[in-house]
Predict the 3D structure of the following.
Amino acid sequence: MKASIDQLQAFIALAEAGNFTRASERLGISQSSLSTTVKQLEELLGVRLFDRHTRGCRLSEAGAGLLPWANRLAGDWRAMLDNAQEFASAGYGRLSIAAPSVQCALLLPPLLRVFSADRPGVRVTVLDVAEHQVPELVRSGVADLGIATQADKRSDLVAAPFFSDQYVVAIPPTHAIAARKYIEWKHLAGEPMIGPLPGNPVRRHLDERLAAIGVRLDYRYEVALPWTMVGMVREGLGLAVLTTAVRPLIEWHQLIARPVLRPSLTRTMVLLSAPGKTLSATALAFKKQLLASDGLPGKSSPASAVRPGRETPAPLPPSR
């Protein structure tokens, strides 16, 4: 038989009360249960903890020597319970999020600032990777959650939409097309374009939708990162179709970010999680915060968790 926390608490309560009546009332148990519990602890330890007398009891020499140890053990137990409650409420723990570089740089920081203010004990790992790597990091369990473009094809991952991101074109102020009040996709068809590498989810999403309206962009330069695309636009190498999430970077380079209309195309961003895996309290708290957040670019009302390929299209801004 091993000592239990109930036995330690009975020992401490009886030592502090000095008699069985007050100690049993404090613990909310009967005197006979208290007596049995203390006796079991004495048998386990092989020493007498109390000297009994008709008016109560007092600590024996062994009891007085062991009481500080009992208090420390009981204190550690209470601390463990308190910490467990903190973990359960996402006050501590770890959170890992995989997301493309744009979302890691521009979308996640303000969200994490709010999240961490309420949970300073949480350690956060941000995996800033190419977007096509995000699903596998979530699937393998390396990342608790992932942020990606909603895919048309079926996937085993669960996806919760959280905002719609409109496409914009980055233009040098001196470019002729910058003089247009409204820009349509057909106006870009003959322009040299700077775009993501083939297979990039954003490029695939955009090309599929443009193909449906008979438009094909002329990619003269293909690069991995949007930062490079914006830098190349600044140097006059072409135009780049990006999303509103990149607008701060575009404007920082003193370029024009103009929505492309007729039709106005958007992509839906989703929060990915692995099916059948229970999210930790920390990950669940961040998910709830993200889905409820206001102020995200182009944010539409969050939908219930869906699987990629079963998208409920976000409302498109009206064409002008």
